[in-house]
Design brief:
- The longest helix has 25 residues.
- The two termini are about 25 Å apart.
- The chain is built from 5 helices and 10 strands, in the order H-E-E-E-H-E-E-E-E-E-H-H-E-H-E.
- A 4-stranded mixed beta sheet has the order 5-9-10-8. The protein has a two-stranded parallel ribbon with strand order 1-4. The chain has a two-stranded parallel sheet with strand order 2-3.
- About 30% of the residues lie in helices and about 15% in strands.
Length: about 170
C-alpha cells in the first residue's frame, strides 16, 4: 500500500482565515490530486492501481474498506492507504532527505537525525507529518522511513533498506 499526502499543495491548518473543516477538505482534495498523479506514474510502468478514499469522490476513487483493499492486494494491485492495512512501515518521501531538528532551508546548521522515535517527533513538534498522523503512528506502533523524493531511485532504495533518510522508531 502507498499513502500519499497533499502537503505540497495545501497546508490548511496554518491559515487562520479558513474554517478548519474547509481546510481539511481542501487538504483531502490535494491528496487525491497527488494520488491520481502517482497512480498514473505506476500505471505507466505497467502496474495496476486503485485509489481508495474515506469519502466519495466521483469515478476517480473508490470508498475505502479494508476488505476491498485486501481484495486488490490479492490481485497484485497497488492500494493507496496504510495503517488500516496493517502495513509494516510507512515510507514517507519528502522534499528534504530526512528529519531535522529545525528547518534546513531556514537553518543551515540544522542537524539531521538518522534515527528518532515517534515520541520525540511528537514531543519536539518536528512537523514531519501532521500531529494527528504522528499520534496515529504512535498509537498503532507504525514506524516510518523518511527520505528525499528527489534522490535518484529513492523509493527503490527505501524499499530495499538502502536509503539516506531517517528511520522513525516506535519504541
Amino acid at each position: 500500500g502507498v499513502v500519499i499526502g497533499g502537503g505540497n499543495y495545501w497546508r490548511g491548518r496554518s491559515n487562520d482565515n479558513i474554517d478548519r473543516t474547509k481546510a481539511d477538505q481542501i487538504g483531502m482534495l490535494a491528496t487525491i490530486m497527488n494520488c491520481i498523479y502517482v497512480s498514473e506514474i505506476f500505471r505507466s510502468q505497467g502496474l495496476k492501481t486503485n485509489i481508495l478514499t474515506p469519502f466519495e469522490c466521483g469515478s476517480m476513487t473508490k470508498l475505502f474498506s479494508k476488505d476491498r483493499a485486501n481484495k486488490y492486494f490479492e490481485k497484485g494491485m497497488i492500494v493507496l492507504r496504510a495503517i488500516e492495512l496493517d502495513a509494516d512501515a510507512i515510507l514517507l518521501a519528502k522534499a528534504i532527505d530526512g528529519i531535522y531538528d529545525s528547518d534546513p532551508k531556514l537553518n543551515p546548521e540544522a542537524k539531521k537525525y538518522d534515527t528518532i522515535s515517534i515520541n520525540e517527533v511528537v514531543e519536539k513538534k518536528l512537523g514531519v507529518i501532521d500531529m494527528t498522523a504522528s499520534v496515529m503512528c504512535m498509537e498503532n506502533k507504525m514506524p516510518l522511513m523518511v527520505f528525499g523524493l528527489e534522490e535518484e531511485n529513492s523509493i527503490v532504495n527505501a524499499l530495499s533498506g538502502k536509503f539516506n533518510g531517517t528511520v522513525v522508531t516506535v519504541d
